[in-house]
Amino acid sequence: MLEKLTAIVSFFSDSVSLVLGLIALYALIFHREKISAFGRILAHTLVGERMKKIKGALARLDSLNFEVKEDKREILALLGELAGMIRLLGDGNAQFKVCYDELIRFADGLEQLSEPKKRRLSEQLHALLDEQTLGAAITLLKEHHGPKSD
After folding, report:
1. With bands split at pLDDT 50, 70 and 90, how would you rate the model's confidence at 92?
2. Where are the domains of the chain?
3. Exposed, middle or buried: residue 70 (CB in 10 Å: 0-12, 13-18, 19+)?
4. Which fold has domain 32-145?
5. What is the pLDDT of residue 146?
6. Angle, CA of 67, 72 and 73, to the nearest 5°
7. Which residues contact 112 (CB under 8 A, 6 or more apart)?
8. What would the 3-class secondary structure string for 13-58 be?
9. Distance in angstroms (rounded) separating the CA atoms of residues 124 and 29
10. What is the distance between the alpha carbons of residues 95 and 125, in angstroms, rounded to a whole number?
11. DSSP element (H, E) containing 122
């Protein structure tokens, strides 16, 4: 009796899997463009969220002054945090890699930090983020409104 019930449940499960697989294949074949657009939008959203986190850390960094003794430790910690946030961006973009390397040198104390250097790093990273965001938006628009090839 238990074997018969197991066979029925297994058959039902396999049937549902087959139907769902066929639906997925249909979607991949006939709605490839929509699925691709969804993937691009999802990737753009994830990058946008990463940018917001980085800009939040930059805002905290901008609110601190390296000349104030109590702020120095937090500034160094924020530089390390920012370096961690942009590390993956540095793998695909040489400008982010340069910024990452500078952040690491300052965060690890390999190079002396000052308030002007902190501000330069902050503005450099702000500019890179703005450039990256604009580039991603333009790419998304070009892919959405670009020429169609039939």
Report:
1. confident
2. 1-30, 32-145
3. exposed
4. Four Helix Bundle (Hemerythrin (Met), subunit A) (1.20.120)
5. 55
6. 175
7. none
8. HHHHHHHHHHHHHHHHHHCHHHHHHHHHHHHHHHHHHHHHHHHHHH
9. 44
10. 9
11. helix 115-145
3-class DSSP state of 150: coil
- CA–CA distances in Å: residue 29 to residues 24, 34, 37, 105: 9, 11, 14, 50
Q: What pLDDT score was predicted for residue 47? A: 82
pLDDT reading at 141 higher than 60 = yes
The per-residue pLDDT for range 16-54, each reduced to its tens digit, is: 999 999 998 888 888 888 888 888 888 888 888 888 999
Sign of CA dihedral 79, 76, 102, 80: negative
